[in-house]
Predict the structure.
Amino acid sequence: MSFTGADLIAHGLDAMGVDTVFGIVSIHNMPIMDAINRLGKTQIVDVRHEQSGTHAADGYARATGKMGVMIASTGPGTSNTVTGLYEAQYASSPVLVITGQAETAFYGKGQSYVHEAENQVPMLASVCRRVESPRHIGQLAQCFNTVVQDMFTGRPAPGALEIPIDLQYAEVEPASYFSGAVAQFQPEEKIVAKFVERLVAAKRRVIVAGGGVVAADASAQLTALAEALDAPVLTTVDGRGSIPENHPLCVGNYYGSAGMYQGILEADLTLAIGTKFAVGVDGQGAKFTPPGDFLHIDIDPNMIGRVHTADLGMCADAKLALSAISAALPDDIPNDGQFNDKVWSTRDGVQGAMRKRLGPDYAEMMDYMRDVLPEDGLWVRDSTIAAYNFGNQQFPIYRPRTSINPSSGAIGPGLPFAVGAAVGTGARTFCLHGDGGFMFHATELATAAQYQLPLTVIVMNDSGYGVLRWLQDNKFGRINETDLGKMDFTKIADGMGMPGERVANVAEFKQALNTSLKTTGPYLIDVDMEHFAPMEISIMPKKK
């Protein structure tokens, strides 16, 4: 049997260690799907929408550290992937979209070839760092390798490969593939020495760890450096798990808290690793200038000092940089004890105030979810009130790659994230969702049921867009277009082959959660928030 362009892609995915891809079959990708199944090395997970599939590939990538892959059709199928690629780009997540295109003989002629998309490449380029589209079968292997290598060089990024349908059928010689080895961003010895000099001279150090630490698999190195410096570690939301949140030096995801910022303001040095210092809502993040001497490490030189001017920068891989600094430090350089005590006291005060705002019911729910979720279980959230109030900060995270949320602040990716993460790890996954965002991709319940994923979907049902209601009331003194009516999500789940139940108090929630953990496949819990003690919302400054 001949070896085709589609076979080249199937063998390439296997050679690159891709054990799972997400996809929707089409006349413009059928050869690739068939080749993958004939080879039998890579599982295809059939999603219900291309945007969901791209988000699922993203969740898979974040949970496993591997490349996430979505196989789509040209034209409408590929345009559906753009939102997922946007989120992946925002999160620095290595997601590859492979799509088809019209036959090369018709490409670009404007003759309405089915699903022709003449500007598909520039469309994809708006949300990818690299897009390739071969015009001859002899270019396919190089284009494939070039895209994937770019995705893993420096800061991870999404990429896309467009393959005209005739090239998928065309015969080609087997190829060699990108091995996964990329140029190491080694820290310069002179720069390491300067970092060490300033770290040793400082007495009140704090560390800010971002998603780049998790992406570099540098959690052990971060923890070791923090211990050597006796320095409190604050994380960003994407940096959660970079140091266990039960470690005595971990402050948690509180750098953006005004109260916590006051607690570290006397620091004479801030060491930041792998964070962009996202400015957030109303540009709040830009107001919190890192206190003291600001040292910034990032694999992307464009990120160093972009939001806050760095006194000293280092462009390097986080793992290599942290290891090099630790190796060069003297043995005994404790942090100022009074400063550290103030940081812990401030942290405890901020945590206590935030917990109080939850009210008794949601605080008890949060604690119970943490108690029953294994340390390696996945905690996936959508952009919703519960995530803002406790999911992103107060729910403890103990391991890297177990905390996933929409980095861009998008509404809706939570469920497909969780599908991809559960597929990739096989670990019990809790997905915390609001009812408004849940409806964006509710059809992926069918995917979860089809593959019997270990997934508990928790829908916080307040009959609308609760966060936006609060924002509208805060900004305008009224609400509009945010009431959606109360949906019974258990009936939707049942229609898609997933068991579930609605709960109206904490005792019922605990029982339902236990039932979900005993269920082989997925389970949905519809939390009727009308019957729970209300939580106070506080995600931005109130109007004056």
